[in-house]
Amino acid sequence: MTKRSEAENWNEVFSDLMLGKPQGDFWLEKYDPRLASAQDGPVIDLGCGSGCDSLFLTERGYRVIACDFSSKALAIIHKYIPGAETMLFDMTGGLPFPDSSARAIVADLSLHYFHWDDTVSIVNEIARVVGTSGLLLARFNSTRDVNYGAGQGLQVEHHYYEHEGRQKRFFDESDLRRLFANWSIEVLTETDMHRYGKPKICWELAAYVR
Q: In the prediction, which pLDDT does 64 show?
């Protein structure tokens, strides 16, 4: 599937969902003390989707830049979260921000669609944008997330599958420690989330650039 058709697919998903105002699961709440260091600059919501995390952050006074490559997702942001800025781009082409221009990035279930080399490049771009001591808060699909496709379909790479025309990656702890080997990891825990119809198993990460 080309990147253009993938963007079109997500536009269709967000159009069909007929979503109202985003409803988050408050997973960021426990990270408020860490996010406090980002009060003087933007928090980038990378792969923001319908804006659950952008809403949480704007309601707490953060300046938020909500980023996605689905124009339909960003239309939801414009409608329900007018306090957030928006940017439309494909993160595999790099992040269109200057070095050290944000103190924190949130990537909530948005880093699992890519080949490993692209994933590494995106994480390196995140490090560049937040700079030394900059914060990443992220959630990732777990290899135990069987309700949402773990281990299903054709394995394209280690823990990366193509199923029903979509490609999706699932992570175990060693994958994440390898991906963030040059970061200072403060939190890495496997947990359940209940944003969707069935329980979803994912990893939560809080890490700083060394």
A: 97
Question: What is the structure's pLDDT at 13?
Answer: 54
Domain layout of the chain by residue ranges: 3-209
The four Cα atoms 23, 25, 31, 32 give a dihedral, to 10 degrees, of 40
Length of the chain (residues): 210
Query: Which residues does 144 contact at the CB level (< 8 Å), separation at least 6?
Result: 150, 190, 201
Do 63 and 43 contact (CB within 8 A), yes or no? Answer: yes
Answer whether 0.85 is exceeded by the pTM: yes
Ranges of residues in the chain with a pLDDT under 70 are 1-20
Report the alpha-carbon distance of residue 185 to residue 22 in Å, rounded: 29
| Nearest to 12, CA basis, from 20, 4, 24, 22 | 4
For residue 38, the model assigns a pLDDT of: 84
Distance CA 199, CA 93 (A): 32
The architecture CATH gives domain 3-209: 3-Layer(aba) Sandwich (3.40)
